Amino acid sequence: MISAFLNTVNARLGRYFPEQRIYLKTESDMRYVRLTPFAQISATTILAFLFLWLLFSTTIVLIEATQSSGERDQSGRQQRLFEQRLSALSQDLNLRTNEAISAQKRFNKALAQVSQMQTTLLASDDQLRELETGIDVLQNTLRRAIKERDAARAETKDIKAKVKGPKGVKRSIQEIADDAQDSLYYMAEALESAALNTGTLEDEIASAEEMIANLEHVQAGTNLRSELILARLEEAVELSTEPLRNMFSAVGLDADVLLDQVRDGYLGQGGPLISPALEKLGDTQDGLINRAQLIVNGFDTLNLYAIAIQNIPFGIPLQNKYRLTSSFGIRTDPKEGGKRMHEGTDFASGYGAPLYAPADGIIIYANWESGYGRLIKISHKFGIETRYGHLSQLRVKVGQKVSRGERIGDMGNSGRSTGTHLHYEVRMNGKPVNPMTFIRAAKNVF
Prior knowledge:
By secondary structure, the chain is of the alpha+beta class. The protein has helices at residues 2-13, 37-162, 167-250, 255-266, 283-310, 435-443; strands spanning 20-25, 30-35, 323-326, 329-332, 339-342, 345-348, 354-356, 361-369, 373-379, 384-394, 401-402, 407-411, 422-428, 431-433.
């Protein structure tokens, strides 16, 4: 029945697809292969299907390639925008830092002027006290001279009263009276000279009081300028400190504890930052001194933050263009499938792309390790460790100290890897954390 059906179909299709024969000739025989209309249509259909499938597959590949190219272009644009923004933020930070340094220089200059004026004021006070002491001495001397004069006058009267005595004694008493008169004459001259000296001292006292008043007026103006300088410095310190504190909090670090550790590890002992002359100022200057000390402490805090940042991996260990290929967390294993924890972040770039230390530290491992391939481990301060896996070349040795921005190796494809990339890990106290937390925190500041 099937044979009859095929014969009927071939007969009807023969008008459009005549039967074809392919002859195969050998030395002793000749054979042929019949291509019925049905076989020709079947072969044509299969070839058409294969052609359409090839066309469809090619179209899909081209679309994906176009989309991938568009994504790369978009990623490149975003990277350029990010670099421009980073450059602008860096320039703004440098500008603010220069302003703060300039303000600190002006503040130190103002402190020096205030110190000099205070020294002059203290010297004037000492001179005034000396003048007052001199006046007291002269007044005591004048009182004593007046008492002696009165006593001499009384004695003269007694002598004159005795002149009326015997004639033999009269000449002697008269001589005594003349001597007393001469003494009174010399004493009067001494009193007149003392009075003139007293007038001169009073003029000097008035001049000193006028000088003190002028100094107090100048000091009031200096205090006003100091108030303005201190206000600007306080604002600059606050604007610079708050983002840094937030950056440390974003990565789970206690800024106060961190600064205490830096202070204990890096700072030595020193003398007072305020001039000793300023410590003699009255209550009027106490507020300025306290504010100045707080500002100096603020600049010290900024220096501590700078030291801490130098030792914490805020940044990306790549300077070339890159793309993020795998994030931190649970993911599908690229080789074996299934869900597994990915303890780092993968960045893809060109083979041999240079890699740089994101913070100061010490190399504690630089060798081959199963899974990681060529691996570098850096120990940083505050219990932080970074790892760099799948490298093509190691450029450091165990025990070597590296600085922020120093080249440590080259990107590669060693170990358990599906392509050229960097596997980057950050660990705090031995526990893996998301490296992008540090990168994003720094991005908001720098």
